[in-house]
Amino acid sequence: MAQSHRFWNWIARRYARMPIRDQASYREKLDRTQAVLQSDWDVLEFGCGTGTTALEHAPHVAEIRGIDSAPKMIEICRERAAAAGCANASFDLAAIDRLDQPDSSLDAVLGMSILHLVDDRDAVIANVFRMLRPGGAFISSTICLEGQARLFRQVILPIGNFLGVLPRIHAFSRTNLIAAFEAAGYEIEENWQPDEDPMKAVFVIARKPA
Ligand SMILES: C[S@@+](CC[C@H](N)C(=O)[O-])C[C@H]1O[C@@H](n2cnc3c(N)ncnc32)[C@H](O)[C@@H]1O
Question: Which protein residue's CA is at the shortest distance from atom 23 of ligand 1?
């Protein structure tokens, strides 16, 4: 956790300047998310990074709160929210693993490019389920690397992680990810991988039954 926090702090300003690699898929995910969000909803985004996605969704919901465990990411989010004059988005330094959020208190939770980074993915999925009200939605986008990119996973990633220039990434399959949502009690509404390309993140809309 501390190691991951150091990596994301170190890269935050560069991350903020990086262009989104696959704009079409990103836009499609925003659209699919906004088709679910409602104007009176309270939304949490964890691992919100530089706040780009939260600020995109802010005009479509009542409140959106972004949390991230890297202080520099939160600094950037707050700068961006102020520059955009966005009054219904707030950003706090917090880790999803330790977030003290009341039961059934949220309409939607977003976790974009994060479930493959947390140490206990299934605990996070279960904790989000607890936070959502019945009928609420967990919307996520996750790299599923099991069986893919062996050189990257087995050689480059461990070395990069040891040197502190790459984060720790957990490898699991798309099937395993979906099974984890179902085991926690969610109903899967969308399970979409752009272009069916195994190197692209899997977008999931998982609903807590009403
Ligand atoms: C790959 S970036 C994704 C950022 C953003 N969601 C996006 O899609 O561009 C992962 C982010 O998750 C944050 N993070 C990692 N582990 C976390 C945790 N346990 N709780 C909250 N944030 C975490 C990192 O600091 C980083 O900003």
Answer: 47
The answer as to CATH 3.40.50.40 being correct for domain 2-207 is no
Please work out whether the CB of residue 202 comes within 6 Å of at least one atom of ligand 1.
Answer: no
Write down the pTM of the prediction.
Answer: 0.94
Domain assignments of the chain as residue spans, ordered by start? 2-207
Which protein residue's CA is at the shortest distance from atom 16 of ligand 1?
118
Q: Could you say which DSSP state residue 19 is in?
A: P
Nearest atom in ligand 1 to the alpha carbon of residue 70 is: 25
Binding site membership of 113 for ligand 1 (Cβ less than 6 Å) = yes
The reported pLDDT for the residue numbered 94 is: 96
Q: How many CB atoms lie within 10 A of CB 44?
A: 26
Ligand 1, residue 73: give the atom nearest the CA: 27
pLDDT tens figures, 33-83? 999 999 999 999 999 999 999 999 999 999 999 999 999 999 999 999 999
d(CA 154, CA 168): 12
82 backbone dihedrals φ, ψ, rounded to 5° = -65, -45
Token pair in block for residue 37: 């969000």
